[in-house]
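Handout, tutorial session.
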Amino acid sequence: MILADGLRFAFGTLSVLRVRVTRWDRPAAGAAMLAAPLVGLVLGVLAALLAAAVAAAGGGLLAGAAAVAVLAGLTRGLHLDGIADTADGLGSGKPAEDALRIMKASDIGPFGVLTLVLLLLGQAAALERAFGGGVLRGAVAVLVLAVAGRAALAWGCRRAVPPARPEGLGAAVAGTVPAPAAAAVTAACACAAAALGWWAAGPRGAAAAGAALLIGPACATLLLRRCVRRFGGITGDVLGALVETSGTAALLAAVLLGLH
């Protein structure tokens, strides 16, 4: 029962797909954060299908841009907004309370704009390289981006990580995931990615995709530590930043290591 509740919570929170969420308590939240890579898988498949069609007609760069646009649309830009706000908060140089107020504001500052531009350019460029090696490799790269991003959420919601505010999404999910469960989910994602990488590009692709699913969450964990020290814990924006950091780092690692 908790698994079904967690899946509904995950899809209802992390995507635009319409599901009926019946539980919002902390056990369901913890299950949702562990199930988040499955949301990434579904969104990634949808993005990869469109990108593959675009690649066949218009080339790798357009395919990469299409994949990035679909993933943004299927999440209402939730994670992109999160990383932009987090960049503004970190870049402000202000005390934690003021930085959190900046992050909560509706506008986006210069740090956020710069971060979004570089992030989206990096994702599109990496996907162009992957699609240059064939439609199948490009599609697997899209899945790596989508799944690795959501795999970082379990690490952000480990029991040792506090919320920065007493309210909001961060407070609802903070501390709900045991560290061994986060590690198990990441390992499972890495194994699945390695299998897809083997299918797309043989042993080199398997090593690249599998390693990428470990590298992405590891990079997100570094950002998490910085945010906890700077803000005192996590917020919904920080979780969005972890998703984009992990996904982008995993995508770049996969392409540089051989998925192209």
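The second record follows below. Compare its token runs with those of the first.
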Amino acid sequence: MVDFSLSPAQEALRAKARAFALQEVLPVAWDYDHQDQIPVAVLDKAFAAGLINTDLPAAYGGQGLGLLEAALIVEEMAAACPGIATGLFDNSLGAEPLALSTNDDAKARYLTQVTQHNKRVAFATSEPMMGSDVAGMRCKATPDGDGYRLNGTKYWITNGGIADFYTVFATTDPKARHKGICAFVIERDWEGVRVGQSIPKLGQRCSNTVGLKLTDVHVPKANILAEPGAGFVLAMQTFARTRPIIGAFAIGAMRSALDYALDYAKRRRAFGQVLAEHQAIQFKVAEMYQKIEASRLLVWQAAWQADQGQDPTVAASIAKFYASEVAIEVLNDALQIFGGYGYTRLYPIEKLLRDVRLLSIYEGTSEIQRMVVARHLFTAYTPIMPALDTLPMLVPPSPGARAGNAWRCKICGHIHYGDTSPEECPVCFFPSGAFVQVA
């Protein structure tokens, strides 16, 4: 049976996250956006309140909650500020390769520090010349005794400037593509690790993004999360679990944009009546709400699949690229309702629009998500309908035609009746080899 209701515990968690977002996140969002800084104090408060690291295993001090609970929390935080929400959730992204790895010793050493001592861990796959093409990374991992030595630059690292640890993906051979990729956990204060300046961005200015320079960084065997080849699989497994949450960021931002647009439409007058009485405005807000509701269902489905131990890869890609793209449409519509005021920094719409623009880029662009879904359709998807060659789409024989077997032309679909196929199709002129018997 399908059940879309939340449990009392999930309802309570969402209420707690909503209260935190309204009391702690919303009041500081525009100030920190203006400063282009991450509010570390808010992250500390969220840790104390038990609103981050919720999906990390209980065996290592986490709450052991599911991805659905994470989606509920993120939606509320993103409704207040998508940028701060990114900073809050990023510990889960950075820790996911650890949690998914088979290195139990590394899990015990690092995840317990994250869950019990408020240590931060960042995820490092991208590079200055490589983003969605994970297999194209060039950061080099050279065997060194029973460990490796890392050299190269990682880029676009969320929370990288405030992180204590990094889960780093590198390659033993760039030409080997995915077969050469391995994964490690390294520490910020290790020799050869250098953190770059904060990268200035259009939006998401309340989240910290930096580059990471690695120069002869020795990684001992105990810190290897995946050997060459297995690293690519680990990265993809990580994305399959974190991409639905990008959809939750989008939902939160869209929901707030709708709230603000409804409030403005009820107050603003034009052509002798309030905006809310104009059918054009009613159509806009109705479509905005439709996109929010559809996005939430897709995100919850993907999160549920992950929580059930199913492979959420395709559902996660659909949820991410649908929600992140309609978020831009919803924010554009909200800004249009506000008119000129929406274009100013005196109202909240322009910030939300700047923040959501990133969602269709990071953790795999929308184009990459389409490739994931298309690959599934052409390789693993099982159609319900019969193949065209065997489709029983028969038409009665033309008057005077001799009854017999039915033959379909595979090229144009023409149906021929007779004991044998015709020597030539009378419609497309292909020879008899183009016909298959269908009845």
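Points raised in discussion: The two ends are 40 Å apart (CA to CA).
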